[in-house]
Amino acid sequence: MIRRAGFAGTWYTERKDELAAQLQSWLQQADVCCPEAARAIIAPHAGYSYSGPTAAWAYKHVGRDVKRVFVLGPSHNVYLDNCAVTRCVSYATPLGDIPIDTAVRSELLASKAFGEMELDTDEGEHSIELHLPYIVQVMGGARF
């Protein structure tokens, strides 16, 4: 199962070349404030017309030697009793799909501290999706 990029075309452009150029422009305008690559970042998740340039300041600090990425986001539309993980095997973006580490997902579920998100809940939540194109962009084709 693949999570579609349901907010592409409304909260950010669905056109691959335009999106890549836009993200790259914002990344080039952002400054690096610490010499080391970040181990964690916090970035906004509003539509790119509002949050895109600001998010670039965080994503500018992501190094390409990253092996695993965890994206945590709030649930705006559905009440959850615990943290929930996707049921999908990949997340689609206009810049390319992001594979989900299903082994780590299984470990999280086995801990009983996590639940699973229904696909419609996953696809209806923008808080994670708005980070995905930036992740693909800054990873520059590196596997993660």
What's the SSE pattern?
Answer: EHHEEEHEHHH
Order of strands across the main sheet? 1-3-4
Principal-axis shape? globular
Structural class from helices and strands?
Answer: mainly alpha
Determine the mean pLDDT.
Answer: 95
Rg, rounded, reads 15 Å
Beta-strand fraction estimate: 5-15%
Low-confidence stretches: none
Number of helices: 6
Q: The biggest beta sheet, please?
A: 3 strands, mixed
CA(first)-CA(last) distance: 19 Å
Q: Fraction of residues in helices? A: 25-40%
Q: How many beta-strand segments?
A: 5
Verbal overview:
With 144 residues, the chain is mostly helical. The protein is 37% helix and 8% strand. It has helices at residues 16-29, 48-59, 102-110, 119-124, 126-129, 132-139; strands spanning 2-3, 83-85, 90-91, 98-99, 114-116. The strands form two sheets. The chain has a three-stranded mixed β-sheet. Helix 1 (16-29) crosses helix 2. The longest helix has 14 residues, at 16-29. It is globular and about 40 Å long. The protein starts with a strand and ends in a 5-residue tail after the last helix. The mean pLDDT is 95.
